Amino acid sequence: MGRYVIRRLLQMIPVFIGSTFLIFFMVYALGDPVAALFGDKAPDPATAARIRQELHLDEPLWKQYFLYMGQIFQGDFGTAFNGQKVTELMASAYPVTLRLTLVAIVIELIVGIGLGVASGLKRGRVVDNSVLLMTLLVISIPTFVSGYVLQFLLGVKWGIIRPSVSSEAPFSELILPGVVLALVSLAYVTRLTRTSIAENVRADYVRTAIAKGLPRRRVISRHLLRNSLIPVVTFIGADIGFLMGGAIVTEKIFNIHGVGYQIYQGILRNNAPTVVGFVTILVIVFLVANLLVDLLYAVLDPRIRYA
Amino acid sequence: MRGATHAKWAACAVAVALAATACGDDNGGGATGGGDGSGIVRSSWGDPQNPLEPANTNEVQGGKVLDMIFRGLKRYDPETGEAEDMVAESIETDDSQNFTVTLKEGWKFSNGEDVTAQSFVDAWNYGAHIDNTQNNAPFFSSIVGYDDVHPESGEATAEEMSGLEVTGDLTFTVELKEKFSTWPETLGYQAFSPLPEAFFSDHDAWLAKPIGNGPYTVDSYSRGSSMQLRKWDDYTGDDEAQNDGVDLRVYTDNNTAYTDLIAGNLDLVDDIPAQQLQNVESDLGDRYINQPALIIQTITFPLYQDDWSQDGMEKVRRGLSMAINREEITRQIFQETRTPAKDWTSPALGEQGGYDEDACGDACEFDPDEAKALIEEGGGLPGGRVTLTSNVDTGSHREWMDAVCNSINNALDEGTVCTVNPVGTFADYRNQVTTDRMTGPFRAGWQADYPLIQNFLQPLYYTGASSNDGKFSNEEFDALVDRANQETDEEDAIEAFQEAEEILAEQMPAIPLWYQNGSAGYSESVSDVTLNQFSVPVYDQIKVN
To answer: What CA–CA distance (Å, rounded) separates B435 from B223?
Structure first.
């Protein structure tokens, strides 16, 4: 197990270097950011040249990348154009997005798995059909539609919540954005769980467990559910990274100052340090989440062992 | 055993999450945070692009804050646009080149420091110096000694501009390189604000919480998300704030800001999203403001391309201008938040400021037959085609460019001769423009820095001027601008500028499209909301009911 983890961690290094370089290259390909700093005015050549020099924009791309990576290993992620350290931006943005993701994942887990189990056990019945129909509906509605509609209904029409999230973004204000963010994935989790349960409910080990005279609750939770969760866990593991990076639409609708907002701002302003810094952290989150998922397999399925 | 531990951990996580959700439900409904009913105006904001230094701020969002915490030598009257003395007692000159500035007594910064002649001279020297890479440095370029502190390349050879000299606590003299009669009128621009000692002694602390001499002080500032400004009770000017403070909140999406306004969580939105313009009258009624600002949008021609600059092409350029149905586009696409352009300035200047609704004349009237005839007379479009270029990430640029092209295609009636070349980001677009890589006409927006006709013409069309993106060059035009700058009488100066504008009408280096209006909406809990010429709300005059 320990060796397996170390091997996986080592594998992350080339992935990390490769992905940061790709991101760096892509942001660089967007063009020179200095012109945009001056708005519709032409940049003053001397000032522009000085800014380029300070940001190393006058160096060739490979050199810029090495300078940047050198900084990163010293814990310096560079400075955004508004004069703020990127590490400061991260410190304010990541906790917010993390809270949002957490709310979304919890909703996905509880509602998604609950509905999945219910419909899987009652295959072909009314419950099953109505859940299927519901998930179909949810999958087909894009996030920005459900976001704006729910925001308008709950925030403006009925006045139950604030339509936007304050800059502190406490959990209480993140529930609706969390629901909106979770909706689509939730539908997938439901369907995955349902299929898995429906398949396993006829498996030999379930029949054995029932024959042993175990209570139904115990059969479902310990034997049936545990084995059926593997595809769901795989999905959610990949979803964590996706939710964090893909929250950009939800964050925009509810004015949440999280990761999506900072990346969007960074792209608009061609600010390489912000974009590369934030995406680098996202890459790490992705890699770690995937590793955790793989380790969880062993916990869920006793047949899987890592040497 | 491992399975059991895992199950316990999972149960725990769910319990925590439930607790969080449960405690969330308790206070989920009520508004949180300050700003309720205490005389505070809650307003939308955008993240300023650069640090909030006066000489480094060249966009509206940072400008909002500077307008609240700084007062310069002069200030533009929000209604008339006239530059009125603020900190200045007098600005005198005999020759339009050497100026003596005298300050009023008793002005203070909010940290207790006096506003002296040195505060201005230090601030201007800071703004001009190349080492400080301030975006607005060129505003000081008319002062003698600018080239020493801001050389075109290499290191500065001096620390201070020799043209600035402190002659007393409250007086200093300014020597300009050339005659510039309207120079004092430019001093209302925020780049010319004074700075306290604290700015230089602890720069980082100042940036974290800026200190100025205006009617508000910064109470707290969390960069990229919000700023709380409070009325400064010891403010030394006579235009003290009419409310207790302003809370600025950064919105990523102006739609959300608008929704918050409708839901009563916000008092003022100064950027109504295009999608909501149809509803705005029914949502807000008379709490909606829509008035011309000092912003004009044009289509500029790359005159550095022979195709567009050779003889006869001026007819083609005029023809294209006449092929655009401005009335219809401003009505259909912009819901009348743009006003069809009739000259190269802005109605926000007012007639006395040089706005002339006849300057463009027929060339700005939609006349498809005449347009077609003119273009044929001028030798036709280069290669029989024209491509419009602009960034399309903001401002409905894609929509109006398509509409302009349709208008041209319909007028010429030769199939699709006009196409649109969208550029993904503003940064990329400006980069292509400033490195002269345009092959066809492109969008150019211009927001004036100060309400002077000079600022609409000289930086854009004077030979070699800083924002002359199309590289227009005309001796007659240059001569008229030079003459205007030397006139000591303001009216004569404006007349000379208007004469110069006639040359633009003949040559059409840029097609005036429309003037951009400032728009804002406000809640029932505030009143006396107005916008100044820069489409920035005049915060200090807003009253909270």
So the answer is: 32
Distance, CA of B296 to CA of B455 (rounded, Å): 12
- Specify whether B363 is located in the same domain as B322: yes
Q: Which helix (H) or strand (E) holds B6?
A: helix B2-27
Mean pLDDT score of chain A = 86
Mean predicted confidence (pLDDT) in B152-167 = 91
CB-based contacts of A126: which residues, under 8 Å, 6+ apart? none
Tell me the residue range of the domain where B428 lies.
295-516
Report the candidate in A147, A116, A133 with the shortest Cα–Cα distance to residue A248: A147
**Quick one: how far is CA A194 from the chain centroid?**
23
Tell me whether residue B60 is in a domain. Answer: no
- Interchain proximity A264–B466, CB inside 8 Å: no
How many domains does chain B divide into?
3
State the Cα–Cα distance between residues B21 and A12, nearest whole angstrom. 35
Write out the DSSP string of A14-79: HHHHHHHHHHHHHHHHT--SGGGGGTTSPPPHHHHHHHHHHTTTTS-HHHHHHHHHHHHHTT---B
In angstroms, the CA A247 to CA A122 distance is 34
- List all residues of chain B from 186 to 245 with a beta carbon under 8 Å from chain A: 207, 222-226
Question: CA torsion, points B527, B531, B537, B539, in degrees to nearest 10?
Answer: -50
What single DSSP character describes residue A112?
I
Residue with tokens 């999230």: A165
User: Do B79 and B101 share a structural domain?
Assistant: yes
Residue B13 pLDDT exceeds 70: no
Report the largest interatomic distance among the alpha carbons of chain A, rounded to a whole angstrom: 84
User: Considering the domain boundaries, does residue B415 fall inside one?
Assistant: yes
In B301-417, DSSP assigns E strands to 338-340, 386-391
User: pTM here?
Assistant: 0.82
Confirm or reject contact between A167 and chain B (CB < 8 A): yes
Tell me which residues of chain B, numbers 421 to 480, contact chain A at a CB-CB cutoff of 8 Å: 424-428, 430-434, 444-447, 459, 466-469
Chain A hits for B263, CB-CB cut-off 8 Å, are 155-156, 159, 162-163
Residues B427, A106: C-beta atoms closer than 8 Å:
no
Chain centre to alpha carbon of residue A220: 30
* CB-facing half-sphere around the CA of B474: CA atoms within 13 A: 24
For chain B, give the mean pLDDT. 87
User: Which residue from B208, B55, B39 is spatially nearest to B123, judged by alpha carbons?
Assistant: B55
Scanning the structure block, which residue is given the tokens 């050549």?
Answer: A45
In a domain, B251, yes or no: yes
Question: Same domain, yes or no, for B384 and B502?
Answer: yes
pLDDT at A201 over 50: yes
CA A259, CA B25: separation in Å to the nearest integer? Answer: 25
**Residue B101 forms contact with A (CB below 8 Å):** no
Shared domain check, B307 and B279: no
B158 and B300 co-located in one domain? no
Strand runs (DSSP E) across B46-82, as ranges?
Answer: 74-76
If 0-12 CB within 10 Å is exposed, 13-18 middle and 19+ buried, where does residue B350 land? Answer: middle
Same domain, B256 and B133: no
- Same domain flag for B408 and B483: yes
Q: Average of pLDDT values for B517-533?
A: 91
> Does residue B299 share a domain with residue B420?
yes
Nearest-CB residue to A299 (from B3, B427, B430):
B3
Sign of the torsion angle spanned by Cα atoms A205, A210, A213, A219: positive
